[in-house]
Amino acid sequence: MNRLNWSTLKHLATSPKMLRWRMEHPQEDTPALKLGRAIHCAVLEPDVFASRWVAPGQCGTTVKTGGRCTNGGSLYYAGEWYCRVRGHAPEDAGDPPAGIEVLDGESLDLAVRCAESVRAHKAAAKLLKYGRAEAEIEWTDAHTGIECRGRLDWIMPDGIVDLKSTRRETLREIVGDVSRMLYHAQVAWYHDGAIAAGAISADAGRPYIVAVGTSDPYDVAVLRLTQATLDAGRIAYRDLLARYQQCLAANWWPGFAPEIVELDLPQWAPGMMGPQEDGTW
Asked: How many C-beta atoms lie closer than 10 Å to residue 201's C-beta?
């Protein structure tokens, strides 16, 4: 069996059935996922961003009138774009070669703006000054024996940084997302995994989350997990790992409600407080 990663394990928070379904049906690439990868590259690997991410340009063919074809390009060849009009594209034109991803110009500009904003943020720029991006690690969880793997956004000599792009506009909303989307568990998973893999020392500092907004003014927040939050994230991911181990052993992957659930509405639900003083409900 392949090593377990966080992108799979997190679905157990919904149900074992969802995790199993996602294992058998990997998530297809979406514009949102592609934009996230572009932002990561622009922020963490600025030296290779321009060569790895491209936007379709105008057709590079010169027409009979002597000017350039005005059509937008959709076929790629030797660093140039061509349209699909017969004769305009070289015979071997097609998709960009492996390692080059295509993004529309607006999204490409957005990724650049996010990167500029992160680099202009004093605390974020300091964290990302020394280290390396997209570090692959593998380890065996000491509590369950499950083989795990992960990709660290940024690894420093004394810890890790996880980069998040967000549509949220306030710090309170971002903090809410950390809890709701289990980001603290994800970062604890990476932190402990990096220690187990020997990528950082056992006494490494507490991890960071750098969140950058994807709309004006592209604001940035640097969040360092407190020890209590790191411990809570550790408890959360270990609970998921233990449940995963149990499901594997029993080969049982139930949904989120495998048995009858007693429905007890909260007191504020209509009718739960009984009739009103005027006799209405």
From this structure: 12
Report the distance separating Cα 273 and Cα 281, nearest Å.
9
- The span from the CA of 4 to the CA of 241, in Å, is 10
Smallest Cα–Cα separation from 77: which of 64, 94, 60, 63?
A: 94
Q: Calculate helix-pair angle for 227-250, 183-196, nearest 10 degrees.
A: 80
Domains identified in the chain, total number: 1
Question: Considering the chain, what percentage of its residues have pLDDT values greater than 90?
Answer: 74
Q: Distance of CA 12 to CAs 20, 182, 220, Å?
A: 9, 11, 30
CATH of residue 128: 3.90.320.10
Q: Is the pTM of this model over 0.90?
A: no
Q: What is the pLDDT of residue 76?
A: 87
**Tens-digit pLDDT profile for residues 54-102:** 888 889 888 877 788 989 888 888 888 889 988 888 888 888 888 889 9
| Cα 187 to Cα 232: distance, rounded to the nearest angstrom | 11
Which residues span the domain enclosing 168? 6-27+122-250
